[in-house]
Amino acid sequence: MSAIRVAVDVVILAIREGKLQVLLVKRRYAPFQGRWAIPGGFVKEEESLESAAQRELEEETGVRDVYLEQLYSFGDPGRDPRGRIVSVCYFALLSSGDIAPKAGTDAADAGWFAAFQPPPLAFDHARILDYALLRLRYKLEWTTAGFQLLPKKFTLTDIQKVYEAVLNKRLDKRNFRRKLALLDVLEPLHEYRSEGAQRPARLHRFSAKKFELLKDKGILFPF
Amino acid sequence: MSAIRVAVDVVILAIREGKLQVLLVKRRYAPFQGRWAIPGGFVKEEESLESAAQRELEEETGVRDVYLEQLYSFGDPGRDPRGRIVSVCYFALLSSGDIAPKAGTDAADAGWFAAFQPPPLAFDHARILDYALLRLRYKLEWTTAGFQLLPKKFTLTDIQKVYEAVLNKRLDKRNFRRKLALLDVLEPLHEYRSEGAQRPARLHRFSAKKFELLKDKGILFPF
DNA sequence: CCAAAAGTGTTAGGAGTACACCCATGG
DNA sequence: CCATGGGTGTACTCCTAACACTTTTGG
Q1: Which of A34, A198, B17, B56 sits at 20 to 30 Å (Cα–Cα) from B175?
Q2: Each residue of B47-65: pLDDT tens digit?
Q3: CB–CB of A48 and B1 under 8 A?
Q4: Which segment of A91-95, A140-144, B28-32 scores lowest on mean pLDDT?
Q5: Spatial distance between the Cα atoms of A14 and A18, rounded to a whole number of angstroms
Q6: Please, which residues 132-171 of chain A have a Cβ atom closer than 8 Å to chain B?
Q7: Which residues in chain A, range 143-202, keep a C-beta under 7 Å from any nucleic strand D atom?
Q8: Are the beta carbons of B88 and A86 separated by less than 8 Å?
Q9: Looking at A17-31, A91-105, A201-215, which range is the least confident one?
């Protein structure tokens, strides 16, 4: 019987203040006491890996029904000085509308950080975060996962800013909108959002039935 | 302390007789006694996940230095009636030149099967195989992983047959070759292979230094 | 009327696809 | 000389990328 323990870690990402940010928790105990870390915990005997990830996510953010995807499993001996721990890592994409609920929990030792300039992280968490960011960039270019980072109603500029924040580069407005239109997954609403002394922007929503069709075209990744 | 055990399973794939085949082992004991299964075993306390996968691979095939990539971790409670087992799955691509060594080991209860029409499999192994095949198809279209399925020297028709076997469709010879040329990863050799009463085909080899450049272009997947 | 973001088309280059014939060899 | 797989080019379509101005609003 092996003494290997199984944990899940969840890289929780959201767009805040126009930037891609990651939710980290401060470690209360050794090892790496006081360091920031990706939230996670041990898998319980009777729960699935995905349930464990969802549970961790909900404990940290108070949020359910969030985009969650398995990333990679890290299990080198020595990655955790407490013993042999295999960590099945997930990443979660929060819509900016879902972020508020979190504040209620244990805000003192949890915080949002710029995902591309994180503080020093505990264990091998820097590597995990790097891989999550890499995967997110790929997903954004080849799937419609980017909409998970937005609230239900959003403007075309909102979604463009998501892409710019994650891909870390400027995009051309006209080309971006043409590509969006080609995807045919947005439903323009008869609502507009006024943001100050400018022309109000039209709100759109992601259309789930068109989304399903993309799967058939093979545009979406399975996991 | 959790009683979860950690295993690795390795989906071993190769092109044989022009078809994509998978190496399966026959289970000696219950549960699923006599059923075919994806080879795997428990991770030892002191070895990394990848070492464990390599070890399993070598035990089954006698082969080292093979393309090996982590696929996904499966860990639903109940997936194994013997208890809670989390399986970190890998897939391995064997070059057709590497297949011969295998025969020496325990051939009686191991065999190659058409990957797209496998026999009934033990546990949730059908799902694992499906996912491996899906991943392989994506990799083939977006990376140069297909060359792992060939020996060092091969003809352009050889590589086309690999693509046709994995993607399960016919490809146009001229278009395929043009795309290959664009990738610029092949080095034509001054050697030819005669296959009978036809014009001999020129041999090529995969050029590793050009391969590295693809990484920079983002064409290759990181894992 | 001014500042600020919203919204909108055209063109040129590159990649993908469809398609058919001659070449070199062994028997 | 013939059967067999090896090898090659062109035309069309579609996607991508570069690029600038008018519209609408609040102040």
Answers
A1: B17
A2: 999 999 999 999 999 998 8
A3: no
A4: A140-144
A5: 10
A6: 134, 138
A7: 172-175, 178-179, 182, 194, 196-200
A8: yes
A9: A91-105
Q: CB neighbours of A152 closer than 8 A, spacing ≥ 6? A: A95, A97, A205, A206
SS3 B199: coil
Q: Compute the distance between CA of residue A136 and CA of residue A167 in angstroms, rounded to an integer.
A: 9
Answer whether A2 touches B (CB < 8 Å).
yes
Task: Tell me the mean pLDDT in the region A137-153.
Answer: 91
Instruction: Reply yes or no on whether the pLDDT at A218 is more than 60.
Output: no
pLDDT tens digits, residue range B202-222?
999 998 666 665 555 544 443
Rounded (5°) CA angle B128-B163-B156: 150
A157 CB less than 7 Å from any atom of strand C: yes
pLDDT > 70: percent of chain A: 88
Q: Report whether B187 contacts B180 (CB < 8 A).
A: no
Q: Which of A43, A70, A76 sits opposite B4 (nearest CB)?
A: A43
> Do the Cβ atoms of B84 and A45 come within 8 Å?
yes
Where is A114: in which H helix or E strand? Answer: strand A110-114
Q: Is B42 exposed, middle or buried (0-12, 13-18, 19+ CB in 10 A)?
A: middle
Question: In this predicted structure, what is the pLDDT of residue A96?
Answer: 82
Q: Which nucleotides of D are covered by protein (CB under 7 A)?
A: 2-10, 15-20, 23-27
Asked if A48 and B77 come within 8 Å (Cβ–Cβ), the reply is: yes
Helix A156-167, helix A173-183: angle, nearest 10? 110
- Which positions in strand C are less than 7 Å from the protein's CB atoms? 3-10, 15-20, 23-27
Reported as a single tens digit per residue, the pLDDT across B134-153 is: 999 988 988 889 999 999 99
Name the H helices within chain B.
49-61, 125-142, 156-167, 173-183, 208-217
